[in-house]
Amino acid sequence: MNWSARAGRIAWQRCTARSLNPAIPRRLYSKSSTSSPPSPAPPPSSAPSSQPPALKKREKTPRKVIFSGIQPTGVPHLGNYLGALREWKRLQDEADPATTDLFFCIVDLHALTIPRPGKELKAARDEMLAALLALGIDPGKSTLYFQSDVKEHAELMWILACTSSVGYLSRMTQWKSKLQLADTASLTDPEARASLKLGLFSYPVLQAADILLHRATHVPVGDDQRQHLEFARECVTNFNHAYCTPADPAKGGGGGGGGGGGGPSRAMREAAMVPPEMILPSRGAAKRIMSLTAPDKKMSKSDPAPRSRILLTDDAATIRRKIRGAVTDGLGPASYDPVGRPGVANLVHMVAALDPRGRDPATLMKEEGLEGCQLADLKEFVSDKVSEELTPIRERFESYMSMPWDIKIEIEKSTEVAQKSAARNMRLYKEAMGLC
Ligand code: ATP
Ligand code: MG
């Protein structure tokens, strides 16, 4: 379709969407998201002068690059919000565009590790995009895009897979928890051999590729991802050793990119990966929000029990019903004891993480008169605070979901930025590896 025909279609769609739903946020109709045609195709690598200004500038000054991702495996829940997404928004709002780039990715290739009908994934992608926009991720400030729109994620995964240790991957816990196996399970277990797929097993390699594709320096994630970030750092070491270290003439091997003896070549220096740092949630004790039905498991989008999680899109009555039904204990009035009373502590962690004064859970309980109160009263208090936080997000989500075609247009430019960043970094890696 040519540009003017396409622009006409978009204008018509927007008009229709607005007339159907006056609550649609105005920003979606802003000039920046609608009026300019797509950027021309990226120039060949040998013509740096015609690179987009933002990329050219980045080569001169070392920049802070923040990357994080979320799977479209369902509507995000309170754990995603308190452990990661609220942090994305804070980082976006505090970032200085002169020194910092932010990449937030809906990692739909990761979602394929637990296959389900295409129609469901398509709907989940729309919901995730709407949820991220609703909680304030702004494609004008952050590069927001779908992983499958940037082919280099999968390409870099293969490259990193070639230097990744199966032994290391087999000790990681995610494939075991997704298959509901014990943390002590190994590749030799018959149950694991029967059900484990290569995609799920190598999930951390794709996650490392996501991070390293944009040469991220900082990765905000929940506590459950600590192991994966460690693995990404391991991938950096392996890649740099294989391709960015000059060959030792005495041994006659090692190193790529034509380094030979002596120091590293220009290609090696430019390609060398930098180990990313993890940014943990900055406020409150809610590093990991636990399931409402099993407080020894983290709250998760893919948990088969819908009552185990509070969705960002739940209304006040649903939130109250789920929290009233949360598993606690029969140990009497409320007290804060994360080891002995994990179900109660989980509820307190939620309100502590939402507390505008940033009080620690024990102090908050005392000051709010929750210490020694009935568990039913604690649950009412928690329900009120959670609803207060989530209601505006739910309302915006509903507006965005009424116009799924429009929100995709909102991230078109952002996707191009991600594609250009990926292409530029892959060129560096490939040069060092001798692939170009
Ligand atoms: P899935 O069950 O499909 O793996 P998930 O709920 O674990 O879904 P992810 O998409 O894997 O969500 O993770 C998105 C982000 O949310 C990650 O940064 C992760 O660390 C964070 N996160 C996930 N669950 C929790 C939780 N219960 N508490 C805090 N942070 C969480
Ligand atoms: Mg997960």
UniProtKB/TrEMBL annotation:
Instruction: List the biased-composition ranges (Gly residues).
Output: 251-264
PROSITE patterns of this UniProt entry? AA_TRNA_LIGASE_I
| Bias kind Pro residues: ranges | 37-46
Which InterPro entries does the protein's record reference? aa-tRNA-synth_I_CS (IPR001412), aa-tRNA-synth_Ic (IPR002305), Rossmann-like_a/b/a_fold (IPR014729), Trp-tRNA-ligase (IPR002306), Trp-tRNA_synthetase (IPR050203)
Pfam families in the cross-refs: tRNA-synt_1b
Q: EC number(s) on record?
A: 6.1.1.2
By its UniProt entry, which SUPFAM superfamilies does this protein fall under? Nucleotidylyl transferase
Keywords from UniProt, A to Z, are: Aminoacyl-tRNA synthetase, ATP-binding, Ligase, Nucleotide-binding, Protein biosynthesis
Coiled coil spans: none
Segments for region (Disordered): 23-61, 246-266
Q: Which family does it belong to?
A: Belongs to the class-I aminoacyl-tRNA synthetase family.
Q: What is this protein called?
A: tryptophan--tRNA ligase
